[in-house]
Amino acid sequence: xxxxxxxxxxxxxxxxxxxxxxxxxxxxxxxxxxxxxxxxxxxxxxxxxxxxxxxxxxxxxxxxxxxxxxxxxxxxxxxxxxxxxxxxxxxxxxxxxxxxxxxxxxxxxxxxxxxxxxxxxxxxxxxxxxxxxxxxx
Length: 137
Hints:
Layout: H1 2-28, H2 35-65, E1 69-80, E2 93-98, E3 101-106, E4 116-125, E5 130-136
Antiparallel strand pairs: 1-2, 1-4, 2-3, 4-5
Helix pairs in contact: 1-2
C-alpha cells in the first residue's frame, strides 16, 4: 500500500513540474525552434502523470473509506523476479490471475504465497489492481 502513496506523490510533483514547463513555453517561448516538440512531449507526459495521480487518489480514498473489490474463484499465482539492471535491482512481485483479473501483490508483504493454481478469495483496490488480502481455500 505504501507504493501507492509514493507513486501518487511523485506523479503529483511531476504534474506540477510539467504544467510549469508548459506554461513557461506557452507564455514566453512561442518562437523557440522546438516549441511544438516541447508542447507535444510535455502533453504526453502530463497525461501519463495525470493518470497515475488520479488512479492513486482513487485508491487512497477507497482504502480510507473501506471500499474494496473482491473476487472469488480459481487463482493462478505467478512469481516474477526482476533482474538487477544498471541502476540496481527491482523488487519481485506476484501476479494473481482470477476470472480475467490481473492483480499484483508485493512479494515482501505476501511472502507466504507460492506459485500454484488454487481456489481463493481476494480483496483488492480497483483502480490500480493492488492486492490487499488473499484467502486460500
